[in-house]
Write a structure and sequence with these properties.
13 strands; disordered N terminus; globular; 16% strand; 2 domains; alpha+beta
């Protein structure tokens, strides 16, 4: 699935919230017979290999075009998400088969083995640090946790997530398989509708401590030093600028968009947030366009924007908060909140020109979020996600 508009944000690999409250578990659901993942879909199996340390870093990056989750989460810089994936990877194969067949796994946190409880604790600390929960890990009413199959409109195959729920609060989750479209409304609606019913489901039969798998570490290369200034072909850059400003002749626009679906889709965007990003870029000053071309970035904080720019940014951030906040404003421009926004040229290895992206970095979310404005070839390249996570301001 090609990511475009707000669907690419997030990659924000954002820990999202749903609705509903946990209740005491009923009888436990029985597990199927042990066995290999004979019926697992290829995407699920590949991601599971990544989380178990069975893929090289190069293979994980190549997987990123189809599923950015491993490239995003397998990093010590993201301890909460990484803990959720290690919990997922440590499940024995028959538990994965059960998850794909029945659609969920569920346990009380205090009934898990020590290592798995430790991973849940780390993931929960990340959630609570983002003002979600609380999710008590012991006591009379400890949280329940597990994994779930989620069907999102527009995706042919289901997503799978780690989830945690407690009495009186919205469930929290991390999408561990097919982390696509994380900031679309279809994504948010699917999780808010499909996670709460798990609170009424019976608990899964416990897995013996000696059957959980040990996770191997994937050797990771140190990140390359990003270029001080990302150079773009000036003719290409100014053509994109003129396209957004409505100044490119029709024949040149047709040539430019013919092989660039990202640019074509952006120019046709009809939703208010999408139009706001387009207008924000189209109304940069000549000085700002030249600064972006020469330095590779524009950075704004509260107080740096004109009244007109602030109105456009507020439209985009309001849309993000509605899609991801679960009633909380994760993205705020205020003197007391260190959110930054801007544009950047991001160099993706083995591509001719950098991606021109709008971005936002909020202290309430784990990664910068972004929207690519042009360069379909670079968006589809294996190093696209890592390049943004390493080069965007605040990364």
């Amino acid at each position: 699935m090609r990511l475009s508009t707000a669907a690419i944000l997030l990659l924000t690999l954002l820990l999202a919230t749903g609705s509903g409250a946990a209740r005491a578990p009923q009888k436990r659901a029985s597990a199927p017979a042990a066995g290999a993942l004979e019926n697992a879909d290829a995407g699920y199996a590949a991601v599971l290999q990544a989380y178990r340390g069975e893929l090289t870093e190069e293979q994980i990056e190549a997987l990123g075009e189809r599923d950015p989750a491993p490239a995003l989460y397998l990093s010590p810089q993201n301890p909460g998400e990484r803990a959720a994936t290690r919990f997922f990877g440590s499940l024995p194969d028959d538990a994965h088969a059960q998850l794909q067949t029945s659609g969920y796994l569920k346990w009380r946190v205090d009934r898990l083995p020590k290592e798995q409880r430790g991973w849940v604790k780390e993931a929960v600390q990340t959630l609570e640090g983002r003002r979600q929960g609380p999710f008590p890990l012991n006591g009379k009413e400890p949280a329940t946790t597990g994994f779930a199959r989620i069907q999102v409109a527009g995706l042919e195959q289901p997503q799978y997530c780690w989830w945690v729920a407690a009495e009186g609060v919205r469930p929290g989750w991390v999408t561990v398989v097919r982390a696509l479209g994380l900031l679309t409304r279809d994504y948010s609606d699917a999780y808010r509708e499909q996670l709460p019913p798990l609170t009424d489901k019976p608990e899964t039969e416990p897995i013996a401590s000696n059957r959980w798998l040990k996770i191997r570490e994937t050797p990771r290369k140190p990140p390359p030093t990003p270029p001080a200034a990302v150079m773009a072909d000036e003719k290409y850059y100014w053509s994109v600028v003129r396209a957004y400003c409505g100044q490119l002749p029709k024949d040149e626009l047709r040539t430019l968009t013919e092989h660039d679906r990202v640019l074509s889709d952006r120019l046709k965007s009809s939703d208010p947030a999408g139009r706001a990003v387009n207008e924000l870029f189209a109304k940069l000053t000549d000085e700002q366009y030249r600064a972006l071309l020469s330095t590779g970035r524009l950075i704004w904080a509260d107080g740096d924007l004109t009244k007109a720019q602030r109105k456009l940014v507020d439209t985009v951030l309001r849309d993000l908060n509605e899609r991801t906040g679960g009633g909380m404003d994760l993205y705020l421009l205020s003197p007391a909140f260190a959110t930054r926004v801007g544009f950047a040229l991001v160099h993706v290895p083995d591509t001719a020109n950098p991606v021109i992206s709008w971005w936002v970095n909020s202290p309430s979310v784990p990664h910068p979020s972004w929207i690519p404005l042009a360069n379909d070839a670079a968006v589809k390249a294996p190093g696209y996600y890592r390049a943004h996570l390493e080069q965007l301001p605040g990364s």
